User: Which sequence fits this backbone?
């Protein structure tokens, strides 16, 4: 249940103000990078087998997945690999690629409040948005940020029932890639992972969420 119970650390001090972002543009520091196509985007989650296996059989999240708590979705696979220690942390042994509609993704962002913003608005928000330093495959912090989105209980139900297009278990290739990274063959490991490129955020979302 790791990706539902582990709320990202809130560290406003590490997000120094960089000035406003022009309408319709996200900064290079705060840009969504993802695997996406014309209608869908892939986000990643790490779960214990007890949650992952029933979900994969059903093609959607089912019990014992909890609909009663916030769940976090992340379009950056390297960030999730760093957080889950390449699927080695207890409760995070299975890495799932969750393909959802872009409409749902942008709907979640439209409802989001930055964790570094007004705390009263954040407490009332159904969706939380946080930026953390992106990670290399070796775990080093990079000089740009990765977005993660926390879905509240009401939105989690919509996420499961309406937004999910498919679930894919990436665990076997993640474990192979981890072996390659440990052997110093990082570029070979990278070829096993999906490509992530800059996602074209709508202008209003870029102006509001990428100004941190």
Assistant:
């Amino acid at each position: 249940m790791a990706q539902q119970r582990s709320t990202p650390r809130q560290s406003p001090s590490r997000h120094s103000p960089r000035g406003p972002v022009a309408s319709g543009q996200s900064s290079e520091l705060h840009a969504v990078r993802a695997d996406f196509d014309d209608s869908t985007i892939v986000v990643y989650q790490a779960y214990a087998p007890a949650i992952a296996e029933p979900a994969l059989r059903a093609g959607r999240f089912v019990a014992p997945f909890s609909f009663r708590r916030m769940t976090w979705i992340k379009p950056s696979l390297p960030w999730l690999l760093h957080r889950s220690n390449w699927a080695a942390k207890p409760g995070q042994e299975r890495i799932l690629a969750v393909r959802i509609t872009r409409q749902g993704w942008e709907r979640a962002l439209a409802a989001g409040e930055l964790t570094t913003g007004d705390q009263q608005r954040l407490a009332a928000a159904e969706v939380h948005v946080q930026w953390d330093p992106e990670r290399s495959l070796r775990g080093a912090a990079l000089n740009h940020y990765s977005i993660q989105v926390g879905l509240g209980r009401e939105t989690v139900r919509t996420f499961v029932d309406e937004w999910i297009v498919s679930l894919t278990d990436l665990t076997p290739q993640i474990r192979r890639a981890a072996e390659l990274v440990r052997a110093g063959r990082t570029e070979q490991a990278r070829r096993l992972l999906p490509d992530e490129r800059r996602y074209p955020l709508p202008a209003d979302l870029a102006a509001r969420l990428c100004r941190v």
Residues 1-25 have pLDDT under 50 and may be disordered. The chain has nine helices and nine strands.
